[in-house]
Amino acid sequence: xxxxxxxxxxxxxxxxxxxxxxxxxxxxxxxxxxxxxxxxxxxxxxxxxxxxxxxxxxxxxxxxxxxxxxxxxxxxxxxxxxxxxxxxxxxxxxxxxxxxxxxxxxxxxxxxxxxxxxxxxxxxxxxxxxxxxxxxxxxxxxxxxxxxxxxxxxxxxxxxxxxxxxxxxxxxxxxxxxxxxxxxxxxxxxxxxxxxxxxxxxxxxxxxxxxxxxxxxxxxxxxxxxxxxxxxxxxxxxxx
Length: 240
Prior knowledge:
The protein has 240 residues and is α+β, with helices and mostly antiparallel strands. It is built from eight helices and five strands. It has a five-stranded mixed β-sheet with strand order 1-2-3-4-5. The protein is globular, with a radius of gyration of 19 Å.
């Protein structure tokens, strides 16, 4: 978020002003909890749960996400109405169980990692799953396929390699719902020691900016619009 727009980061993480969660976040949380439920038990069992059991978790997790948001009226539904998003959450979970899950034998799930950056600043990450110390996977929902170039530049993979402290092979296990079709894809990439060192420098630069209180707006960000930024009016650009 800081890289997208430091001012947005300031509103969210310094002033602790929360914007309404989007429909995509609600769907992502439901799918994440359901898939993690299956993979967690698979660490020891080596067997996927019955799909219907996992779909029940997806449906319940969707309802819980709505409750945490404060009800349907507190969610930004621009990406789809409640019925569509719930159906999408369940449908993408079923797709994961059919396509992705049989390919994954995790050694650990929802791995929490920490690294101290400087001055007590704690960098925290949660890995969806590992299949070995050097192979990490992340389950994501979205509306479009991911290009290889985007995967090779994605900062999430940099962050996980930085947290683990060594080079990794990384897989984006993506579940796509365009509104018309659904599909699963796996986009593989890796992160080297040199990329970890570069990312560590970048993290320290962001930490220095945060400590110094430097949070300029970034009107050139693709997220800088009324549609995508919940702080649009507060920032002042919405009043221009």
